Amino acid sequence: MGGCFSKPKPVELKIEVVLPEKERGKEELSAGGKGSPRAYQGNGTARHFHAEERLPAPHPYPGAQDCVEAAVCHVKDLENGQMREVELGWGKVLLVKDNGEFHALGHKCPHYGAPLVKGVLSRGRVRCPWHGACFNISTGDLEDFPGLDSLHKFQVKIEKEKVYVRASKQALQLQRRTKVMAKCISPSAGHSSSTNVLIVGAGAAGLVCAETLRQEGFSDRIVLCTLDRHLPYDRPKLSKSLDAQPEQLALRPKEFFRAYGIEVLTEAQVVTVDVRNKKVVFKDGFKLEYSKLLLAPGSSPKTLSCKGKEVENVFTIRTPEDANRVVRLARGRNAVVVGAGFLGMEVAAYLTEKAHSVSVVELEETPFRRFLGERVGRALMKMFENNRVKFYMQTEVSELRAQEGKLKEVVLKSSKVVRADVCVVGIGAVPATGFLRQSSIGLDSRGFIPVNKMMQTNVPGVFAAGDAVTFPLAWRNNRKVNIPHWQMAHAQGRVAAQNMLAQEAEISTVPYLWTAMFGKSLRYAGYGEGFDDVIIQGDLEELKFVAFYTKGDEVIAVASMNYDPIVSKVAEVLASGRTIRKREVETGDMSWLTGKGS
């Protein structure tokens, strides 16, 4: 069997790995919830569960009938630093050769199913080409986010120069592994008025904190409270796939929380935090004592303050219900989006196929200008214009006009009147920390909670994470920054949990984010605030490019479209502690990226 695989070129030298159309489509599909790994079709209705929790845990030494073993290649077929997908009959495996050793792992990223063979292998881990999650090649463990699950690790043996992989059939089909977690053994769980750990906010930071505590063997009571009426869900999907239903978006099924004793209080609003007595008070008067507290309240969307702001059918997108109502109201009608940032542009892109017309109103002269710069912003704007989106730039809304209470027209400061049946407002957000104003927990002038690298606030035993914090960014000289992105919230939730358990962990992740519009993805890594130049390689017109954001002679961020896995490569270089110089990216010679350069 060893010789039947054609030998791939070393993936390291090929910077430009473009996903074939069908693979690219899959990413957008899964980003829209339709390809969600948790939606299994059965009897025509989607049943949403995490397969692993319902099935008995795979036995560490499965019987022969549960296992499959095959020779997958000759030892000389792979060079060091190479990866290859190999077929075992029951499913594929990612085979990796690193420092002369072979490792076999699950081949798909558990987050959205990206093919990891197209990712980046570096420093004993493989980084996903789509959204930057990292997995240890020796254990399969998730080491950087987004996503919650790890990869299965399979047995490898070498006999007579052939590489054999042995795997359980079940693991091959599942493609994801939930780490072993402790269960709650606290007798007071579920009904008493005190908890060991209280987590305020059930986004990525809150959920990852709770899961990390259980993974690290913590078996006391954990209470997670949220303003939402749903269990934790994949919020970034809301603006990319407005039709998605709450159960398609769920990050974990109900059974998961029950199994591991993570109590979730939904529609629960904390109104005061009394740090002296270690107690929080909820809006309905319920009081809960805690020993350790994580504040991960996220942010609240800014709303319009113009005349007519109370008319019906004007939304900020915060919940699946908001998103679903926007789609319903926009079908065949006129939609106006205020704000050309990530949320506004994703919503505008999604509505083009549903609405009669889509208009975007923005103060800046190009979309994403502050984040991606003038040239990239203009190229993306052109893609939207080609999809019938009308832009009203360098202006803002002066009035919302209604007919029988429902929105009919949006009046701009430029005195232009735009027909509108539904309006989505995406003009930024503020930290949802109002409830902390009376407490002794420190807030900065903008309402953010400052934390150190261990996610500790100024009050012992009180940690904070996610969109509402500022923290020292290690690879930008510990500059205090706020990074309101999904991957960062995961990483901070994990560090907070580790420090609740006195493990002395520090936040060191390289920020990574993405946006998806019209079936195309833009990826971004780094922290580009204050960039003074943008160096573009590739073809902006064709939307097949990489943009390097520089400050002085240093590269501080990178964005790309149709140029995978370059953003994951740059993220790995930055994560390794190496500085990328402006001159290295100006020449167009990318050899430095593969470690062959200076």
Mind explaining what this structure looks like?
With 598 residues, this protein is of the alpha+beta class. It folds into 4 domains: 65-176, Rieske Iron-sulfur Protein; 195-298 and 430-499, FAD/NAD(P)-binding domain (3-Layer(bba) Sandwich); 316-422, FAD/NAD(P)-binding domain, CATH 3.50.50; 518-591, Enolase-like, domain 1, CATH 3.30.390.30. 20% of the residues lie in helices and 31% in strands. It is built from 13 helices and 37 strands. Strand 36 (544-551) and strand 37 (554-561) form a beta hairpin. Helix 4 packs parallel to helix 11. The model is unreliable at 1-26 and 28-62 (pLDDT under 50).
Secondary-structure blueprint of this entry?
Blueprint: H1 21-31, E1 39-42, E2 45-48, H2 51-54, E3 67-74, E4 82-87, E5 92-98, E6 101-105, E7 120-122, E8 125-127, E9 134-136, E10 142-144, E11 153-159, E12 162-168, H3 169-174, E13 194-200, H4 204-215, E14 222-225, H5 236-240, H6 246-249, H7 254-259, E15 262-265, E16 270-274, E17 279-282, E18 287-295, E19 299-301, E20 314-315, H8 320-330, E21 334-338, H9 342-351, E22 357-362, H10 369-386, E23 389-393, E24 397-403, E25 406-412, E26 417-419, E27 422-425, E28 429-431, E29 449-450, E30 462-464, E31 469-473, E32 479-481, H11 486-500, E33 512-517, E34 520-526, E35 533-539, E36 544-551, E37 554-561, H12 566-575, H13 582-586
Parallel strand pairs: 13-14, 13-18, 14-15, 18-30, 20-27, 21-22, 21-27, 22-23, 29-31
Antiparallel strand pairs: 1-2, 3-12, 4-5, 5-6, 6-11, 7-8, 8-9, 9-10, 11-12, 16-17, 17-18, 19-28, 24-25, 25-26, 31-32, 33-34, 34-37, 35-36, 36-37
InterPro entries: FAD-oxidoreductase/Apoptosis (IPR050446), FAD/NAD-bd_sf (IPR036188), FAD/NAD-binding_dom (IPR023753), FAD/NAD-linked_Rdtase_dimer_sf (IPR016156), Reductase_C (IPR028202), Rieske_2Fe-2S (IPR017941), Rieske_2Fe-2S_sf (IPR036922)
Main location: mitochondrion
Keywords: 2Fe-2S, Apoptosis, Electron transport, FAD, Flavoprotein, Iron, Iron-sulfur, Metal-binding, Mitochondrion, Oxidoreductase, Transport
